[in-house]
Each structure stands twice: as structure tokens, then as C-alpha cells.
Amino acid sequence: MKKHLLPLTMIGLLVVAWIIVWPKLPEQIPIHWNVNGEANGFASKLNAMFSTLGIMVILYISMAFLPKVDPRKTNYKYFTKSYHIILNAILGVLFVINILMLANAMGYDVPMGSIGPLVVGIIFMILGNYMPQVRSNFFIGIRTPWTLSSDEVWKKTHRAASKIFFFGGLAMILATFAPVHLKQAILFSVVALTVVAPYIYSYVLFKRKP
Fold first, then answer.
1. Does 3 map to a domain?
2. Which residues lie below 8 Å from residue 60, measured CB to CB, with a gap of 6+?
3. Do residues 60 and 48 lie in contact, with contact meaning Cβ atoms separated by under 8 Å?
4. Helices 112-130 & 151-175, crossing angle to 10 degrees?
5. Are 166 and 147 spatial neighbours (Cβ–Cβ below 8 Å)?
6. Are 99 and 151 contacting, i.e. CB atoms less than 8 angstroms apart?
7. Strand segments (E) across 63-151
8. What are the boundaries of the signal sequence (predicted)?
9. Phi and psi torsions of 146, nearest 5°
10. Coil, helix or strand for 163?
11. If DSSP codes are grouped into helix, strand and coil, which group holds residue 127?
12. Are the beta carbons of 90 and 58 closer than 8 angstroms?
């Protein structure tokens, strides 16, 4: 039960936060911002509440349930701690973003253009730190046809990807202090690198196998 305490607490606190600020919120609130911190996406407060809370609830339920249906569920016992740290880190990021979104909607001056990359950078660094501990499975990690077909390729790909994610996250954090035109280039470059590089590397490793 301990492993469920933190995620359920975050979800519960967010529900309480929504209840407290609900009467004071405008009917339309910003839910998306560009790198300049300018709001460029809006939703009704009802839709915003259900979508933000819904994402956290669905993620929590999914992450709790998926190990039970994974054909490689026996592997989860080797990285149970890392699995829950990753889940809590993702939920923590969503929690912080939601609280900041509510503060922004209440009229507080929240620099969302800087906070977004900062928070995402932190989660990238956490993912990078724990990625090498993740064993082969069908739901979490770098799941390509080549990593899933070879434990050796899986391990080597995740060791390399961990460095990419960690330093990519660090670059995102540093990008919050960069000029706007550089910030956007850094963010897109990091995202592209973390998506494409591990995929290509897993294929190269697989082709090199004897």
C-alpha cells in the first residue's frame, strides 16, 4: 500500500486545489503556452479540470495495472523501485504543472514559458538516471522491434539512452536561461534527439549482433 500513498496523495491534493479555486476561476482558462510564456491554448474550466485530473488518474491506474498484463511481467520484480519512482516523477511533474496552471488562471504572474522546460528537463534527468535499471517489457522504456527481440540490445540501448535523457534534461534546464530564439531550438533538438537516437542505436546494435 505504501507505493500507492504518494500518487494518491498528489491526485487528492489536486482535487482539493480545484475545489478551492473553482469559484474564483474565469470560465475560460489558459492550458497551453509557447516558449515566450504567452498563452496560446484555452479551455473551459470544466474541460480543463477533467482533462488534467483525468490524465493523472488514467496514468496512475494504467501504471498500476499494466505490469499484471505484460507478457514479460516476471521482469518487473527486478525494477519495481525504479518503476514506481518513474511513475511518481511523471505524476509529480503533472501535479506541479497543474498547480502552476491554476495559479496562472487566478491571475498570478507565473513564467510558464520558463517553468515548462524546467519541469520537463527535471523529469528527463530522472528518467535518464533510472532507465538502465528497466528490464525488457512491453510498456515502459525504449520499446523498438530490436530491443524487444534481444535482452542484450535492450540493455545497451537503455544505457546509452540514459545518458541522452540525462544530459538532454540538463540542456532543457539550462535553456530556461537562454534567449527565446535559442530556447526553442534547444528544446526541439533535445526532444528530437531523445526520440530518434535510441531508436536508430537499437537498430545498429541489432544489426551488429553475430
1. no
2. 7, 8, 11, 87, 91
3. no
4. 150
5. no
6. no
7. none
8. none
9. -85, -35
10. helix
11. helix
12. no
Beta-carbon contacts of 47 under 8 Å, excluding residues fewer than 6 positions away, are none
Range of the domain at 118: 11-18+25-208
Which grid cell sits at 129?
538516471
> Which grid coordinates are listed for 201?
542505436
What pLDDT, in 10s, does the model give residues 190-201? 889 998 999 999
The number of domains in the chain is: 1
Q: pLDDT tens for residues 163-186?
A: 999 999 999 898 888 887 788 888
The answer to whether residue 147 sits within a structural domain is yes
Among 194, 172, 196, smallest CA distance to 183 is for: 172
Tens of pLDDT, residue by residue over 5-33, are 999 999 999 999 999 999 999 999 988 88
Rounded CA gap, 150 and 155, in Å? 9
